[in-house]
Design a protein that fits this description.
GO terms for molecular function: omega-amidase activity. By secondary structure, the chain is α/β, with parallel strands linked by helices.
């Protein structure tokens, strides 16, 4: 088995969804050309990150009837022949009208192999610094997620999920060799915790960790 090369794609995300998707495609193909086997996009890669944007940019996730972002992710994975951890997009569940922050994972054939809805919503009130409440708009997911590759199984979680050790602990006990976290940490609390939490999850569970932020 050849060694695994994993690429983390940092993207500047703008207001134009089509431009965000085109930029993501360009970087995924570039990573694959450089030898990457697994490519990771950041949280909310197709839209600006903010509760005021989630509803406007949300899409249904249905591989049988793909929306623009879902079609783009499938094409990226197939055309680059990589496993693609598709960051996250705001997901609309049409039957309920609920919104989720959702990561999809794609095989080198362009098939969706996993879907993770962010479990732990980021609500913070840091006096004089930052107020942000995902729970005003989003619903939390309720399942743990992993996917299989020729290099082993990987767990997937999103951003604030990283702060909860049980997610990685269960993944490790399910046989995962690593955790992958698309994220969009803020600049107030993020610098204190980003590397610290990744190192903690890795050491706690004797697994690899990787995270990708815009």
């Amino acid at each position: 088995m050849p060694s695994l090369k994993l690429a983390l794609v940092q993207l500047a995300v703008g207001a134009q969804k089509a431009a965000n998707l085109a930029r993501a495609r360009s970087k995924v193909l570039e990573a694959a050309k450089a030898g990457a086997n697994i490519v990771v996009l950041p949280e909310c890669f197709n839209s600006p990150y903010g509760t005021q944007y989630f509803g406007q940019y949300a899409e249904e996730i249905d591989s049988a009837k793909p929306s623009p972002s879902i079609q783009a992710l499938s094409d990226m994975a197939r055309d680059s022949k990589v496993y693609l951890v598709g960051g996250s997009i705001p997901e609309l569940e049409k039957s309920t009208g609920d919104l989720f922050n959702t990561c999809t994972v794609w095989s080198p054939e362009g098939q969706m192999v996993a879907k993770h809805r962010k479990l732990h919503l980021f609500d913070i009130d840091f006096p004089g610094k930052i107020v942000f409440k995902e729970s005003e708009v989003l619903k939390p997911g309720n399942t743990l997620t992993d996917f299989s590759t020729p290099w082993g199984k990987f767990g997937v979680a999103i951003c604030y999920d990283m702060r909860f050790p049980e997610v990685a602990m269960i993944a490790a006990r399910r046989g995962c060799v690593g955790m992958i976290y698309p994220g969009a940490f803020n600049q107030t609390t993020g610098p204190l915790h980003w590397e610290l939490l990744l190192r903690a999850r890795a050491v706690d569970n004797q697994i690899f960790t990787a995270a990708c932020s815009p």
